[in-house]
Amino acid sequence: MAISDLILQLKHAPGPNHDLDVSIGIIMGYKREVQMVDEADRKSRKVIWLYPEKDGEVPLPRFTENLEDAYLLARTVMPGCVGGVSWDHDGATAKLDDGPYFTAATPALALCIAALSGAYAEDEEMSHSVQ
């Protein structure tokens, strides 16, 4: 999935979404592996996640649900960034570095959008400067 499509889906998400977590994880470098496991006279599928910087199976972060996991995303895709998140009864807002404010249904979603938008903007700037 293109980052711009993912950002759009995050903006319209009413709350945490596992499918969006999977898309974010893949962008971050998580690898999904399916294993067949013997269970009571039958085989079943087990999905495990691997991350290049860690040994063995790791849990996929809940980027869209957990603010700490969304913060991990921001630190990974925009190392050294600074920013903030706020929320009220109507939703949440996040801002990283000199970027714009991004709004979403929850603080974790807003921070994911800000992080991916910041990283996407940097990629866009680099691709335009190369041309």
Structure summarized in a few sentences:
By secondary structure, this protein is of the alpha+beta class. The chain has helices spanning 3-12, 18-28, 67-77, 107-130; strands at 31-39, 42-50, 57-58, 83-88, 91-96, 102-104. The protein has one domain: Bacillus phage protein, CATH 3.30.2120.
* Number of β-strand runs: 6
Multimeric status of the protein: single chain
CATH class: Alpha Beta
Largest sheet: 3 strands, antiparallel
| Reported CATH architecture | 2-Layer Sandwich
Number of helices, where a helix is a run of at least 4 consecutive DSSP H or I residues: 4
CATH topology: Bacillus phage protein
Fraction of residues in H or I helices: 40-55%
Overall form? elongated
SSE string? HHEEEHEEEH
Low-confidence region ranges: 126-131
Give the C-alpha Rg.
17 Å
What proportion of the residues form beta strands (DSSP E)?
Answer: 25-35%
Mean pLDDT: 90
What topology, given as strand order, has the largest sheet? 1-2-3
Q: How many structural domains? A: 1
SS class? alpha+beta
N-end to C-end Cα span: 24 Å
Task: Please tell me about this protein's structure.
The model is unreliable at 126-131 (pLDDT under 50). The radius of gyration is 17 Å and the shape is elongated. It contains four helices and six strands. The chain has a single domain (3-123), classed as 2-Layer Sandwich (Bacillus phage protein), CATH 3.30.2120. The protein has helices at residues 3-12, 18-28, 67-77, 107-130; strands at residues 31-39, 42-50, 57-58, 83-88, 91-96, 102-104. It is α+β, with helices and mostly antiparallel strands and 131 residues long. The protein starts with a helix and ends with a helix.
